[in-house]
Specification:
Distance between the termini: 36 Å
Number of helices: 11
Bound molecules: threonylcarbamoyladenylate, magnesium ion
Order of helices and strands: EHEEHEHHEHEHEHEEEHEHEEHEH
Helix content: 25-40%
CATH class of the largest domain: Alpha Beta
Structural class: alpha/beta
Oligomer: single chain
Radius of gyration: 19 Å
CATH topology of the largest domain: DHBP synthase
Strand order of the largest sheet: 1-8-2-3-7-4-6-5-9-10
Number of strands: 14
CATH superfamily of the largest domain: DHBP synthase
Strand content: 15-25%
Shape: globular
Length: about 325
């Protein structure tokens, strides 16, 4: 069942208090929300997502004050990043407060916190008052949803209510920064880049090492369409099209080639590209083509978050 905002936020709030699942829009992707204080609600959430129990979820709040109540201590770096980027597409990993359940952290001693910017998410979180666990509202390992229809296509009757807030503005998941280990580590690139983070922190942000906590979005085959996909440079694209012909569906910067039936042309600018990416992957995934060919964007820092998702989508 899908409903617009307004009074339906009240309905969503009641369902959440009863331990049910409500999908809601955020500025990044749609989240599948559940009461983060309820073990039963989180068990339901994991069952519907098909997510392994040791994978932590992000907990969402209406404001930074509420979010930080879930942290044992809040380092200065967290205050700085929150002041600059919340509400917004940033998740902070902090040491968890004693009341935070193992069932949201996957048994780790840290918790992921985020204050989303979407007005409907904010309205829901403010009405609910507490924390809402909200992984992307797709089955585990699949492409994240950026419209209410994507959520319905994936989860059907398994979700009790879908709040429809239109297409997501950012289009890819939040940037995740781990501040639980004394220095900032970028666990997942997103709309907020390393350069912006470093400008606020006044120090370099490192990339994950072997000690980094588990992030399901960092599994190689995450965010994957069902159709095998290949990431190819501009010249290789031409050769692959010649080889595959109409067996291919193409996501590219260039104009369509008549040998291919399903061709989506993407923006040459990373922010606009990210916004369209998941809807495009879903559309091409539904064409029955044998192979998705994705023209690789340039390997520049501003493309990092998009490239990260494309590399995971292209398993072949
Ligand atoms: O943009 C987003 O972050 C979206 C929207 C709905 O807010 N949510 C999202 O959630 O992408 P999910 O569960 O699909 O991805 C959350 C990622 C996972 O890779 C998870 O492993 C990681 O965050 N994560 C959560 N808590 C963590 C923790 N304590 N330590 C390390 N990673 C954590
Ligand atoms: Mg996800």
């Amino acid at each position: 069942m899908t409903e617009a905002g307004g009074v339906n936020v009240g309905k969503a709030e009641r369902l959440l208090r009863a331990g049910r699942l409500v999908a809601f829009p955020t500025e990044t992707v749609y989240g599948l929300g559940a009461d983060a204080s309820s073990k039963d609600a989180i068990a339901r959430l994991y069952a519907v997502k098909g997510r392994p129990g040791d994978h932590p979820v992000i907990v969402h709040f209406a404001d930074a004050k509420k979010a930080f109540e879930w942290a044992r201590e809040v380092p200065a770096a967290a205050h700085k990043l929150a002041a600059k980027f919340w509400p917004g597409p940033l998740t902070l990993i902090l040491q968890r407060a004693p009341h935070v359940g193992d069932f949201v952290t996957g048994g780790q001693d840290t918790v992921g916190l985020r204050v989303p910017a979407h007005p409907m998410a904010h309205e829901l979180l403010a009405a609910f008052g507490g924390g809402l666990a909200a992984p992307s509202a797709n089955r585990f390992g699949r492409v994240s949803p950026t419209t209410a229809q994507h959520v319905r296509d994936d989860l059907g009757a398994d979700v009790d209510l879908v709040l429809d807030g239109g297409p997501c503005g950012v289009g890819i998941e939040s940037t995740i920064v781990d501040l639980s280990r004394g220095h900032a580590v970028l666990l997942r690139p997103g709309g907020i880049g390393a350069v912006e983070l470093e400008a606020v922190l006044g120090e370099p942000v490192s990339l994950p090492d072997a000690e980094a906590p588990r992030v399901s979005g960092s599994l190689p085959a995450h965010y994957a369409p069902r159709t095998p996909a290949r990431l190819v440079g501009g010249e290789a694209l031409e050769a692959e099209i010649a080889r595959l012909g109409e067996a291919a569906a193409v996501l590219a910067f260039s104009a369509p080639d008549e040998r291919v039936d399903f061709w989506l042309r993407m923006p040459k600018e990373p922010v606009a590209y990210a916004q369209k990416l998941y809807a495009a992957l879903r559309e091409l995934d539904g064409t029955g083509s044998k192979m998705l060919l994705i023209e690789a964007p340039p390997d520049f820092p501003e493309w990092r978050a998009v490239l990260d998702r494309l590399r995971r989508a292209a398993r072949d």
